[in-house]
Amino acid sequence: MIHTYRGKTIRFEIRYKNRTSIGMTIDSYGNVEVQAPKGTPDDRVLQTIEQNWDLIQQKLNEMKDRQQGPQKKVYEHGESFLYLGNTYPIQIYENKNIEQDYVEFDGESLQIYVKQLDDASIKQALKRFYYQQCKAIVEKSISSYQSYFKTKPRSIRITDSKTTWGTCDSRQQLTFNWRLAMAPREVVEYVVIHEMCHMVHLNHDRSFWRLVGKIMPNYQEKENWLAVSNWKMTV
């Protein structure tokens, strides 16, 4: 079916099932599907579509952005970067007297102080900031969840991986991707829990996921955030 509302048009499919309420899903390709109880009139389906119109448009826009992939960053005032799950503008200041370039977060923006105003210095300062924040959050999370485990990590490293958010080897050495500092704290906590559970179960068998779920019952929401948002986690 096709429906136009507030000047925009969407195409959606209705599936009638043995259920008591109307549900809705949007897949990664932007296909909208409505699941409705058998016998539900069309006007009730359209009413549900309109009640969720803003959410549908948000999801469709996110899908389009995801398909386009990460946009090239511009290292100047006002450019936005992710930090702890939210987007903040950067403010850049030149100070030739500082010993090392650095970044401060004031709650509203990322304040970048560099000796020299060039893209490489600004980018490196941001990466160093994310490394430091990731390390701090990871170490705090490990401390918070250590009571669930008899074994402690032998070492903790922050790395620049292109393929993984975290790893745990057979010697209980944990590594984490510095880009996790761009994710919400609870998402970082999920990755920490995930890798700590590998200290008990090195593979992803049923026992592993049972342990993850025992510690963080809603872990799938965190996995979904990473799956949907990872393309934005870049400098």
Structure, explained:
- The protein has six helices and eleven strands.
- The chain has 235 residues and is of the alpha/beta class.
- Strands 1-2-4-3 form a four-stranded mixed beta sheet. It has a four-stranded mixed beta sheet with strand order 5-6-8-7, covered by helices on one side.
- Helix 3 (119-145) packs across helix 4 (185-197).
Give me the secondary-structure topology.
Layout: E1 2-5, E2 8-17, E3 23-26, E4 32-37, H1 42-51, H2 53-68, E5 80-83, E6 86-94, E7 102-105, E8 110-114, H3 119-145, E9 155-159, E10 166-168, E11 173-177, H4 185-197, H5 206-215, H6 219-229
Parallel strand pairs: 2-4, 6-8, 9-11
Antiparallel strand pairs: 1-2, 3-4, 5-6, 7-8, 10-11
Helix pairs in contact: 3-4
Q: Reading side by side through the largest sheet, how are the strands ordered?
A: 1-2-4-3
Q: Which bin fits the share of residues in helices?
A: 25-40%
Order of helical and strand elements? EEEEHHEEEEHEEEHHH
Distance between the termini: 41 Å
Please state the overall shape, judged from the principal axes of the Cα atoms: flat
| Biggest sheet layout | 4 strands, mixed
Beta-strand content estimate: 25-35%
Work out the helix count: 6
Radius of gyration from the alpha-carbon trace, in angstroms? 22 Å
* Annotation, overall tally of beta strands: 11
Mean pLDDT: 92
Q: Report the uncertain regions.
A: none
Name the structural class.
alpha/beta
